[in-house]
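Me: I hope this is not a bother. Any chance you could explain this protein sequence and its structure tokens? It all follows right here:
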Amino acid sequence: MELTDICPMETWETLENNLFTKFNFQGSVFNPKGIRISQVKNWSNDLCPAIKATKNGQSYICSTAHMNMSAMAEKTQALVMEECDAGFIKLLVPIIYKGAFLGVAGGCGLLAEDGDADIFAINKIAGIEEATAEELAQELPVITREELSAASTYLQEQVLRILDTHAKKEVHQG
């Protein structure tokens, strides 16, 4: 079973867009292999697209954080919240249906209240000049603990709603 067997792509895209609109998170839905299922791009800041534009930034900052956190979400079957090596909060909710791990939904790209972008790591890992990274980091959005809690609750509730809607359709069709 795949994520688009649970609901149409538009439903997943709406979730991604709502995470951005409501909380400024770059919302994303991934399959179990760590591949985004949509082409929605809502950047939370100017630094993340620069990081993702480099091979090492994408591979060793974004993908590494995602794959580690996705594995944690699959293992614990619970929300996972961590920082990537660039210093941004990433939150993931596992999408599990009838015991099968179908992927994760989540968001990234915001700083914790007491957080900072790790310009040194961004320079060393992604190869972005420190001056360029510092310039891109001038106006980084911050998420408060309360907003982060609200975003976490919202994301978990939306994933459960999507799964519940699919389960009810199966019962009526079955």
